[in-house]
Amino acid sequence: MPHRPARYDVLFEPVRIGPVTAKNRFYQVPHCNGMGRAFPSSMAAMRGVKAEGGWGVVVTEQCDVHHSGNHQREIRIWDEKDLPYLTRATDEIHRHGALAGVELAHNGSYVGNLESRTIPIAPSLKAVRGNLPITARAMDKDDIRAVRRWHRTAALNARRAGFDIVYIYAGHDMTLPVHFLSRRHNQRTDEYGGTLENRARLLRELIEDAKEAVGDTCAVAVRFGVDELMGPRGIGSEGEGRDVVEMLAELPDLWDVNLSNFDNDGQTSRFSDEGFQAEYVKFVKSVTSKPVVGVGRFTSPDTMVSMIKGGTLDLIGAARPSIADPFLPRKIEEGRFDDLRECIGCNICVAGDKASVPMRCTQNPTMGEEWRRGWHPEYIPPKDTDDTVLVVGAGPAGLEAARALGQRGYDVLLADRRRELGGRVTLESRLPGLGEWARVRDWRLTQLRRMPNVQLLPDNEITAEMALEAECSLVAVATGAQWRADGVGRSHSFPMEGLEGPAGTPVFTPDDIMAGRLPSGRVVVFDDDHYYMGGVIAERLAEHGCEVTFVTPDSLVSSFTQFTAEQKRVQRRVMEKCAAVHTSTALVRAEPGAARLACVYTGRETVVTADALVLVTGMVPRDELYTGLRAFGEEALGAAGIRRVVRLGDCLGPGIIAAAVHSGHLFARTLDTAITDETPYRRENVELDWDQPLPASSGGAWGRQEGQGHGR
């Protein structure tokens, strides 16, 4: 067993937080997960695995205190009916010796209350966030008293559910306490508006109410965004952000500080480095004696120690690193640094939550599957067959399949046609801003090279005939996919006109760019993929000296990155790097020395000069090996000892890296990737409140009572 160097001992010191004590300095801050009250068993199991992994504190996502501030995809604590599944989460957390925290929240004008249909409330009259045609009404004094009452009741119910830490959430420009603080949201002229002391009144009252209600047994924490990165227009760490902390310094038991809004707090590795928030939050410890927790996508134990010893933080906060590796604290404690599965900062976890589905993780394929599939991030059942496995393709799917199969004890051959392993991860990590994505490859190769039962075979082009002679009973084809050069994608179902013939404008794909085959001069990048690839290709070409025109049929650049909380940064980067950006525009035809574009709404066409085209459209699987093996027929395969041939990752269905890793892990667990007749995971049961009768049918337009019928 490796030994932990003494310099990391500081990370395992207990920390007193009001009336409770965290066993170490590892603190899983509140984070959303797409599970919430729709998937409460998945939520509870996921939190429990974090506690098992050594996190001293595990906090829920935001927990709505009332139906008038209803964030539909989160958990809630409206009344005692919500306690059973919350208690299930605290039981899972406590079972492993961690403290359980809950982030109480009322979202005010951040939500439209589409479920409850209650008119939202706000400090002052305000249109709700986004494009919903809903206006939040200005709160009167009765509303303010009600909000205080709802929070107090929620705090009492949280204690009943077993929580040790109760949050007042004043961050991310999302909740009523911060809306009252903000001059943008609060134009009141009474004692809750005007001066900062007045605007902070509600936050102070909520903290005091919680302390009075549960402070004898539960710690009361404040989560506060100290800087909105808006300069004088918003809260800033050198202005009112600092003033608020100084004003309320000793009132809560803990300060959880970060940036606001979430797009700033949860920046991807494409736009920020580890510990990027330190410069904004480092002042907090100088103005309060209470413990301080902050985040910064911390994965390096040395960085964590520097945060503590340098006086920036008392507790190492993490959301995304705890998702990528729920056992990060335990691995550091045991000195197993090579086993740390570091977050790559891609925010696919955020995308799952924003899509209202159980979140997933590029690095950790078990995330979201702890309860429904029974997957554990560290443990996997030993092999239960006598199979030997040939995995062809050492990209993300093949690497994960070989790693997990090797962990199970299977004998595995992992072959790849390239000398350098990693497949698309190796290639894409060389594109602008994606360097940390190489961790997907590096962690798996580190694990594989320690496994005597796994043989790595780089620089080996495996043919169907060679696979027959490999003496393996399972063949997993993970040969990836290639980008199309014919323009077929979301906008074009058939090949684009003008791409054929030697006299046409040269056409490139992302595969060409990643292989170092770059165009020159005036280049049109047509992005019909809508995730990161079009933007980073454009950036790469601009760095190469090309004059880039960026074209996309969508109304936004890289629109899927709205889900990964980076779209505005992506679009700004593309607009800065490119000579021109055309949204809501399709490339409809290639012409010699030009590209014909058309508005997707009006069809109005324009022509732009182009020395080359780069098509970021669709992908097709490289499945020739799979089809070649299947062509031999079952009898020939059986005679060679092969009982199953499967496809993994992009070879099965081109997608994101996280999907490829999950596909490889699924194969390692089940030895197959085929669709089954039975649902392959557990589902939540719908609990009906049988004490409440269904409303009687009134007939008419809404239904007819038994026996009415139409009769004609």
Description:
The chain is of the alpha/beta class. Helices cover 29% and strands 18% of the residues. The strands form seven sheets. It has an eight-stranded parallel barrel, surrounded by six helices. The chain has a five-stranded parallel beta sheet with strand order 17-16-15-18-29, sandwiched between helices. Helix 21 links the parallel strand 22 and strand 23 (580-582). The N and C termini lie far apart (82 Å).
Q: Tell me the strand percentage band.
A: 15-25%
Specify Rg, calculated over alpha carbons.
28 Å
Question: What share of the residues lie within helices?
Answer: 25-40%
Largest sheet: 8 strands, parallel, barrel
Outline the low-pLDDT stretches: 698-712
Within the largest sheet, what's the order of strands? 3-4-6-10-11-12-13-14
Q: Would you count the extended β strands for me?
A: 29
Number of helices: 25
Structural shape: globular
How far apart the termini lie comes to: 82 Å
Region (Disordered): 689-712
Cofactor: FMN; [4Fe-4S] cluster
Family: In the N-terminal section; belongs to the NADH:flavin oxidoreductase/NADH oxidase family.
InterPro entries: Aldolase_TIM, FAD/NAD-bd_sf, FAD/NAD-binding_dom, NADH:flavin_oxidoreductase, OxRdtase_FMN_N, TMADH/DMDH_FMN-bd
Short description:
With 712 residues, the chain is an alpha/beta fold. The protein has 25 helices and 29 strands.
Label this structure with key terms.
disordered C terminus, five-stranded parallel beta sheet, 25 helices, alpha/beta, 712 residues
List the helices and strands and how they pair.
Blueprint: E1 15-17, E2 20-22, E3 26-28, H1 40-52, E4 57-64, E5 75-76, H2 83-94, E6 99-105, E7 121-122, E8 126-127, E9 135-138, H3 141-160, E10 165-170, H4 176-181, H5 196-199, H6 201-214, E11 219-227, H7 240-247, E12 254-259, H8 262-265, H9 278-281, H10 284-287, E13 292-294, H11 301-309, E14 315-318, H12 320-324, H13 328-333, H14 348-354, E15 388-392, H15 396-408, E16 411-415, H16 424-428, H17 439-448, E17 454-457, H18 464-468, E18 474-477, E19 481-483, E20 507-508, H19 510-514, E21 522-527, H20 533-543, E22 547-551, H21 567-577, E23 580-582, E24 585-591, E25 594-599, E26 605-609, E27 612-616, E28 619-621, H22 624-631, H23 634-639, E29 644-647, H24 649-652, H25 657-670
Parallel strand pairs: 3-4, 3-14, 4-5, 4-6, 6-10, 7-9, 10-11, 11-12, 12-13, 13-14, 15-16, 15-18, 16-17, 18-29, 20-27, 21-22, 21-27, 22-23
Antiparallel strand pairs: 1-2, 8-9, 19-28, 24-25, 25-26
